[in-house]
Structures are given as C-alpha cells and as structure tokens.
Amino acid sequence: MARAAVQVGPSPVGGRRAADVPRRIRVLAGAAAAALAVFFGAVWMVAGEARDGLRVIGHDAGPQVVATAGLYLALSDMDGQVALALLAGEERGERRRAALARYERRRGEAGQALLRASALAGGDAAERRTVQAVLDGLGRYERLAARALLLDEQAPPGDAPAAALAVYRDAADLMREELLPQAYNLTLESGTIVRRTHDETRVALFLGRWGMAAAAVAALGCLVALQVFLARRFRRLIGPALLLATVVTAVYACAGIAALGGAAETLTRAKRDGFDAVLSLARARAMSNDMHGDQTRYLLDRERADTYEHTYLNAAQSVYYVEAGNLRQYHQGVARATPAERRPGFLGDVLARRPSGAEPLAAYGGFQRADARMRALAEERRGEAVALRLGALEKAYDDYDARLADAARRYVAVFEGAVREGEDALRDVTFPLPIAVIAAAALLVGGVGPRLGEYR
Predict the structure, then answer these.
(1) CA-based, 20 to 30 A from 446: which of 86, 207, 211, 249?
(2) Does the CA dihedral 421-405-305-99 come out positive or negative?
(3) Which parts of the chain span the membrane according to its record (predicted)?
(4) CB neighbourhood size of 70 (10 A)
(5) Torsion angle (degrees, nearest 10) of CA 77, 80, 82, 83
(6) Residue 216: which residues within 8 A CB-CB, separation 6 or more?
(7) How far is Cα 222 from Cα 228, in angstroms, rounded to an integer?
(8) Mind listing the pLDDT tens digit for each residue in 82-119?
C-alpha cells in the first residue's frame, strides 16, 4: 500500500492567519493615525476659533467700540465748549480762550477717532458710509460754530447777540439731531459685533472641546487596541514607542482641553468684566458731558431753556435712573441713592459690577447738587448762576468725570489683561502642536514598523 505524502510548510489555514497579521496591523495603525489626525486637527480648529474671537473682541470690534464712544464724547464736548465760549463772552476772556482751546483739542480727538473707526470698519460698507456722514456733518458743524463765534466777537460786550445765538442753534441742532446719533450708531453696530462674536465663539469652544474629547478618546482607543493586539500576537507585554505615543496623546488632550476651557473663561471675562464695563463707563462719560453742555445751553439760550432742561433730565435718567417726574424730584432721588441699590443706567451698570464703589456715585451726587443750585439761581440771579456754572459746577463736573475716567482705566486694564491671558493660553496649546503631531506620528511608525518588518 502506498503511503500518503507528508505536507511540508505551513498549512493553508496557518498561512492565511500569518498573512492576516500585517494587514490587521496596518488597519489598526491606519485607524490610530486617522484618529490622531482628527484629534490634532480639532485642536487646531478650536484654537483658531478662540483666537479669532479674542482678535475681534480684543483688537478689532472691541477697540472700535471704545473709539466710537470716544467720538461721541469728543463731539458732544465740542458743542459744549462752543456754548461755553458764547456764555463766557469777551468780558471773561481767559475763560473763553480756555473753552476755545479745549474745543480745538476735542476737534482733534474727534478726527482721530473717526480715522480709527474708518480703519477698523474695514470692508463694512454701512459703517464706512456712517463714518463718511459724520465727517461731512462735522465739516458743516465747524463752519456754523466758527460763524457763531465770529458774530459774538463782533458784538458789544454783554450777552451773546441774537444773530450769534441763531447760528449756534443751527449748529447745536446739527450736532444733536445728526452727528451724535450717527456716532452712537457706530458704537451700537460695533457692540453688536462684539456680542455676536462672543456668543458664537463660546458655542464653538463648547462644542469643539467635546469634539476634541471624543477624538482624543477614539485616538487613545485605537492606540490601546493596537498595543493589545501586538502584545498578544508577538508575546511582548509593552511596546515602548506606542506607549509613548499614547502618553503624548493623553497629556496633550488633557492640557489642550483645559487650556481651551481657560480661553473660553478669559473670553467671557474680557467681554463681561472688561469690555461691558468699559463701554458703560464710556457711555456714562459721553452722556454726562452732554448733560454738562445742556447746563451751559440752559443759561445761554433762555428761549430754549425748558427744552435743554428736559433733554438734561432724559440724559440723566440714561446715566443713572431715578423715578422722577421732573428735575427737582430727580435731584432729590439721587441725593437719597446708595451704591448698593441696583438701578438701570450706564453708571448704575458700573456700580452693579462693583457695589462697593461709592466714589463715582458720590461725585455724581455732588454734580447734581451743583446743578440744582445753578438752576435755583438762574430764576432770579442769572449772573450768579453763570458764575456758579463757570466755577463750582465746573469743578463738580470735573471731579465726577475724573472718577469715571479712573474707573475706566481700571476696567481697561482688566479687559486687556484678560485678552492677553487668553492669547497666552492659546499659544501654549498651538505652539507645541507641530511637535506633538510629529512625535505621535514618529512613535506610531516606530512602534509598528519593526513588527511589519518581521513579515518581509
């Protein structure tokens, strides 16, 4: 009987299993590489979203809001100084010259603010048109103001002549009805951009961090699965290169998610504790300056005194709201107010952020007390009222404005510090990113390559 032939070499089943090993290694390694690419790509994209948000709030729209709020202040003070020069007259030459010198400074500040607003508007056609409209209107205002001052200079000493007052009314109406609303619209438009950017970036960071976490878990899962397979197939407990790749991915995932969470918090702090407070203070200063101008116009133009008193009360309610039907009741309400009370208005918003900050409210109360004395004198002793406006009332306003300016500087420091902190956190994430990508790829190849080489 013939013997059956003995088969030499691997069995077909064993050969297929051996051939499956490199294919499975390649599949697992490819899945790990893809998961790592998704993870590191997610880190880059989410960091980019945060960086764009901080750029808009910290360097583009945010500064534009402050610049346009400064534009409102400069424009309103220009008109206030023209009124003050007319009120002072030639008999108070030094006071008149000081008002005109301040008018020139404010005109320069308005020009600089417009240039900055134009540069920051970029390709926004609507904002550029608004800036151009303010420029055109400012030129018309300056011509009217110059003519009113010239007519006042040519008149005999005493009250401002009717011709000068008529021209000044045209200038004041142009300022209040066109220029100031346009400047305020620029602030609102830029403020809307800041709020929208903040909200969108917060959402993107929240979703992005969850996406990063999911990608990191997938990448780590693929790396662990690859190591388990290699350990079982090649009887090795640990693959040092793949272990290091896993450690690099895990550490970077934890650090990246934490850093981007910190960036989200600094973005909110920059907007809420810095930008919002700076904007409220800028508006409070601008509206308060407009109120101060109304005090001058109230004394200068007796035919429109009731109108200027009404506009003063409306502006005062915007700065610090007190339930009042007339200015006398408003003065009394401010005298009873305390910093701990939460009230609407720009100053009320600032006090709500820092309830212990009694100084701005105390200074505002002094400003209102001086206003009440001036109006009481204006009814019968106008000369004394003018002297008070040029003396004690001016000092009270300067003290109040200085308190607001000092608070604004503190909040600007908070704003700029939060933006820098967020940018530093993002730099800590993105700067080592290329190194982490290269290291993870090299370690993955270093862990898989020798095992595949055994099958060549």
Answers:
(1) 211
(2) negative
(3) 25-47, 67-88, 210-231, 237-262, 429-449
(4) 21
(5) 180
(6) 39, 249, 250, 253, 257
(7) 10
(8) 999 999 876 677 888 999 999 999 999 998 888 877 77
* The two structure tokens encoding residue 345: 């208005």
- H or E segment to which residue 299 belongs: helix 276-300
The model carries a pTM of: 0.77
Is the distance from CB of 277 to CB of 229 less than 8 angstroms?
no
Record the tokens describing residue 281, joined without a space: 């203070």
Q: Which tokens sit at 36? A: 């790592």
Q: Distance between CA atoms of 299 and 283, rounded to whole angstroms? A: 25
Task: Estimate to the nearest angstrom the gap between the alpha carbon of 443 and the chain centroid.
Answer: 43
**Tokens representing residue 413 in the block:** 């420091």
Q: Domain coordinates of the chain in residue numbers? A: 27-449
149, amino acid identity: L
SS3 assignment, position 326: coil
Helix, strand, coil tally for the chain in percent (to 5):
90, 0, 10
Distance of CA 375 to the CA centre of its chain: 39
For Cα atoms 307, 312, 313, give the angle at the middle one, nearest 5 degrees: 100
The C-alpha atoms of residue 371 and residue 244 are separated, in whole angstroms, by 74
- DSSP letter, residue 156: P
The backbone torsions φ and ψ at residue 326, rounded to the nearest 5 degrees and listed phi first, read: -150, 175
Per-residue pLDDT tens over the stretch 212-264: 888 888 888 888 887 787 777 666 656 678 788 888 888 888 888 888 888 88
Give yes or no for a contact between 134 and 184, defined as CB atoms under 8 angstroms apart: no
